[in-house]
Amino acid sequence: MARTTDGDGTPVPQRLLAAATRLFADHGYDRTSVQEIVEAAGVTKGALYHYFGSKDDLLHEVYARMLRVQQERLDAIADADAPVEQRVREAAADVVVTTIDNLDDASIFFRSMHHLSPEKNKQVRAERRRYHERFRALIEEGQRSGVFSTATPADLVVDYHFGSVHHLSTWYSPEGPLTPQQVADHLADLLLRALRP
What we know:
Elements: H1 12-27, H2 34-41, H3 45-51, H4 55-79, H5 84-101, H6 103-112, H7 118-144, H8 154-166, H9 168-171, H10 180-195
Helix pairs in contact: 1-2, 1-4, 1-6, 4-5, 4-6, 4-7, 5-6, 5-7, 5-10, 7-8, 8-10
């Protein structure tokens, strides 16, 4: 039976994910071997296959864990009893902060999504679509209530914002002049300015 934790109590699945994330970010998914992952995590191949059926499963989980966090946070923001403009601003900023907080995960995903099996690729696309649809519903709520302009279709507004989010991994640096929250505030403000009637 594979041990579930190491000496400091870190569960083996988290150790494997941390090692895989670091290696995928540094060397690329296709240039990282299962052997390198298990050595970096300090476990056996048996332990990896106990928790993850394949390297492909690890890649899927790297992105899925970030998307789960973002979906939970978006659902909480969208369901809050606050004006729609406030909820959209908070949601727009939150996806920026959570992406920057998981920049390795995001960059790995966008560089390596094509390595996923067709089934996992379809799953990820469905999960991302669910997130985008919930975000779009907030924009549409604001447009229906007259708070936001209807001049630009909600789909295009969502694509505009997420285009910015998806490019964060290509330029954002923690050593740069802006904190994650400052970047989030600027991008959220840009989005709201574009939506005002």
